[in-house]
Every structure is written in C-alpha cells, then in structure tokens.
Design goal:
With about 425 residues, the protein is an alpha/beta fold. The chain is built from eleven helices and 14 strands. Strands 1, 2, 3, 4, 5, 6, 7, 8, 9, 10, 11, 12, 13 and 14 form a 14-stranded mixed sheet that branches. Helix 1 packs across helix 6 and helix 6 packs across helix 10. The longest helix has 20 residues. It is elongated.
C-alpha cells in the first residue's frame, strides 16, 4: 500500500510523554500503521520511574518578599510542609573557586547556570540543601524556556537526592539583581512507577537470518510542544524503511524498535536490551533515526564505532554523491545503549538551526513532505548496503577511545563495571 511519512508525522503531532495515556495512543497508531502495511507488530511493556508533585513553594523572604514560579525535578527528596528558610547563593558555574570558603551548604539553596555530574558531585560534597537550575533566556517565560517536569537521572540519585528546581533566566536575573538572601522552599513529591512501552516488529532475513540489524527511533515527546520534529519524524522515517524491506526482504534479519520514554533517559532502548538480552549476540549493527525531514539544514550521520565505520560512511557518500555532516562519537539517542554493548551504530538525522526541540516550539512547520521522503529514500539506500552486504562494514566491538566516551556519556566512574 502507499505510505506517507508526512501523514504519520501529522497523526503523531501531539504531546506523548513517556508513561502517559498519550504515549500509549501514539504506540497504538504505530501498531495500526505496521498492520496496514501488511506487517505484524507488538508492544513491549516496561516500568519507568514516575514522580508526582503534590505542591511546592519558592518564596523570597529577605530582603524583600516575592513568590517565584519554579518547577521541581522528580525523584528527588521532598522538603515537606512547613518547608525551610534557606540562604540563597548564586554559584555561577559552581566550580571549587565559586564555592571557596563555603564547605557546608546545608542551610543554602544554590543556583547554578547548568547542572552536570561534576557540579552535582560538588554540591553533594558540600551538603547543599537544595539546587536551582537556570533555564532559557531572560525574555522567556517558563513555557518558552522549556521548563517542565523532569526526573533526576539515576547517576545523580546514586550520589544523593537533593531537592532541585528549574527557574527561568528572567526570574534568576531578578533574584541576583535584587540581592535575594533568604528563600522559603517547600516541595512535596510522591515518587513511584508507571508503564511505558516499545513498539516492535521483525523482518526475518532470507540468507543470514542468524545475523540481525536493529533499527531504532523514539516516538515519545517531552511534555510541551507537539514533538513533531523530535521525534515523530524519526518514527515516520523508520516506518518508511520498514515498509521498503517488507516489500524487499533483506538477507539479514531486521529488528525494528520504536522506543518509548527516550526523553526520560533512553529508557525504551535500555529496556529492550534488558528484556531481549538473548538477542544481543546476534545483533551486529544498529541504525538510529532522531529528527529528520526539516526543509532547512544538513543531513547528518553520527558514527559510534571503529574507524572503519566512519570510513564506510565517507566512502558511501562519495560513491553516491551525497553531502552529509559526519560526526564520530556518542549519539545522544537510542543507539547509545546498543553501542555500549559493543554494537557499532550509525545515527541518521537532519539538523537545522532554524527550529527548536524540547520546547513549546517543536511544531510541524519546519518539516517538509519532500525532504522527509528524501531522507527515507537516502537512509533506506544506505541501510540496504549494510543489511544485504556480503560482510558488514566493521567488526562488532568498540575501540577503547569510544568506550571512554560511552563511560563519560553514561556518567560512570572509571572503576564502575558495566
């Protein structure tokens, strides 16, 4: 049957945050599309953390009084009623120098420009009572700044569960300008679990069925915007590739995974690896599709694997006369957990500087029907080369430098075992 990737993007352009009824609705749309194409799909359920905020307060008490609209991070500790009065410190980049002479911050909420693992470790060591993380530009309101409920990542929770809040750059600027000194903070979280799911389909290989290629794209979105570019487009592109190989059976087995809850920490791809561990030995290669089809911008390939894999992409592009921005490293998407298991991966995408993701502005307008169709055709041609090759572009496994990048990406300590 005729398949339109753009029509699928239109159909999926609604908020579909992981673990919600809307995510399940999107999964059912994908299942229905698979069946319409003549294939067979299934849902794979998995459990994800869920945090519900029952109430919070963030009020400046001195030297003036002002209520500030912040957003608590999920899975953190609560500061139950009646709350606490905490000193306020703006620590800029939150380096050792920024905190010079401030070894005990147990009575302080620390505001930082950005929060990464190193910053968090430092604040844990100094016993910070709470953290405020600045988002957006001074002219953004909370929605425009992309402030929405996020869960603290497991690597940070292993260290501690410090109550953490997002604050807009506008409000943060006012607090520093007006020399806020004391803030009353309260947050009450109920931390638990809910269900997300992957959508799975398989096309068996005709000549080498024991070798398989996994192809992934996440279909969930953040809680704001329609998630049209990120990543209804990747999901629609993956469906187009599935449609092609249904009609043109490949030599190797192809495992298609539309991943849920990617935006909450690649949870769908991690779940697939955990539940399908018996398949990992047979999986030789991974393709991932995250954000495609924009009218403006370059096509991109993110190569995670040995040098031979980058060479393959470069030579392929030369042979077919295709321009691509080729980058080597960890692709911050669902291919990363597969690469972490030694599976060489290529992330295929189309970038643009004229649109936004993870904000209310991720809408369908920057996506075009013809560019999306072209991405599907170009991606399919490259995949065809790999899935039907006499030999794969490279051996399975990761070079040492890439393993170090993966350790850093997954915020692992050097001595921590995978």
């Amino acid at each position: 049957m005729s398949y339109s990737p753009y029509a699928l993007v239109e159909k999926m352009s609604f908020v579909r945050f992981g673990g919600t009824a809307e995510e399940l609705r999107a999964a059912q749309i994908l299942l229905a599309q698979i069946e319409e194409l003549g294939g067979k799909g299934e849902l794979m359920d998995f459990t994800i953390p869920q945090s519900t905020c029952k109430g919070f307060e963030f009020t400046v008490k001195a030297p003036f009084e002002r209520q500030v609209n912040v957003m608590p991070w999920g899975m953190c500790d609560s500061i139950p009623a009646p709350g606490k009065d905490l000193k306020f410190l703006y620590a800029e980049k939150c380096t050792e120098r920024d905190l010079l002479g401030k070894d005990d911050l147990s009575d302080t909420i620390v505001m930082v420009n950005a929060l990464n693992q190193d910053v968090y470790k430092l604040l844990v060591a100094r016993k910070a009572a709470a953290i405020a993380v600045i988002m957006g530009k001074y002219y953004h309101n909370n929605l425009e700044a992309g402030i929405y409920a996020r869960n603290m990542r497991p690597a940070m929770l292993k260290l501690a569960a410090i109550p953490t809040f997002y604050i807009s750059a506008h409000d943060a600027t006012e607090l520093v300008r007006d020399e806020a000194a004391l803030i009353h903070v309260q947050s009450e979280l109920v931390n638990g679990e809910t269900t997300s799911r992957d959508v799975l389909a398989v096309i068996e290989g005709t000549q080498m069925p024991e070798q398989s290629i996994v192809l992934t794209a996440h279909y969930d979105s953040v809680p704001i915007g329609t998630g049209s570019w990120d990543n209804a487009t990747g999901s629609a592109a993956l469906m187009g590739i599935y449609n092609h190989f249904l009609q043109n059976p490949p030599k190797r087995t192809m495992r298609f995974v539309w991943c849920g809850s990617e935006e909450q920490g690649l949870l769908g791809s991690h779940a697939y690896i955990a539940q399908k561990a018996d398949l990992l030995e047979s999986i030789q290669f991974c393709f991932n599709f995250d954000m495609c089809g924009t009218i403006l911008g370059p096509d991109m390939a993110f190569v995670t694997g040995p040098k031979e894999l980058q060479t393959f992409v470069e030579l392929y592009c030369r042979e077919v006369g295709r321009a691509m921005d080729i980058r080597t490293g960890v692709h911050s998407s669902d291919s990363a957990p597969f690469a972490d298991k030694g599976i060489p991966s290529i992330g295929l995408s189309r970038g643009t500087q004229s649109s936004e993701i993870h904000t209310c502005r991720d809408q369908i307008f920057p996506v075009g029907e013809k560019p999306l169709l072209k991405n599907v055709a170009d991606f399919t041609a490259m995949i065809d080369r790999v899935v039907n090759a006499a030999m794969l572009p490279c051996e399975k496994g990761m070079p040492d430098d890439m393993k170090k990048e993966l350790d850093k990406y997954f915020q692992r300590e050097p001595a921590e075992k995978k």
